[in-house]
Design a protein that fits this description.
Order of helices and strands: EEHEHEE
Distance between the termini: 14 Å
Radius of gyration: 16 Å
Shape: elongated
Structural class: alpha+beta
Number of strands: 5
């Protein structure tokens, strides 16, 4: 498979209100570096997986509603534990919606697999990956 990966970041606040999270049960901030990879089985006539500019713009659109927000206050996340893994899947779903809405142009229909990786720190990361 061929792949293109783009990167952005998002600063959020949230709490993880379960004993398993120790001091992270309280409200705290996090900055996630977000990598989104798009996989195709072949290149298009221009030798591309997808247009990198369109992929970058799509990732920015998906992250925009999360930036500088307290995730505890976002209605779609009500009752959810917004772990790094959870957020990776939420961003994946947002990007899948961008693909369906032609946010990737004609190249979006060729994407067969996607991975969204969130770097929580320089020593920890989590991701969600699946076929489309």
């Amino acid at each position: 498979m061929f792949a293109v990966e783009v990167r952005d970041h998002v600063m959020i606040a949230h709490s993880l209100p379960r004993p398993a999270f120790g001091p992270a049960q309280g409200l705290h901030g996090a900055t996630f570096v977000v990598d989104a990879a798009f996989f195709t089985t072949a290149l298009d006539d221009d030798g591309l997986v997808v247009d990198i500019g369109l992929a970058t713009e799509a990732l920015a659109r998906v992250l925009a509603p999360l930036k500088y927000q307290n995730l505890d206050d976002i209605p779609a996340f009500a009752g959810k534990i917004t772990t790094t893994e959870f957020l990776a899947k939420a961003i994946f779903d947002g990007l899948a919606g961008e693909i369906e809405a032609d946010g990737f142009g004609s190249g979006g229909s060729r994407i067969r697999r996607m991975r969204v990786l969130l770097h929580e720190s320089h020593v920890a990361r989590a991701w969600y990956e699946a076929d489309l």
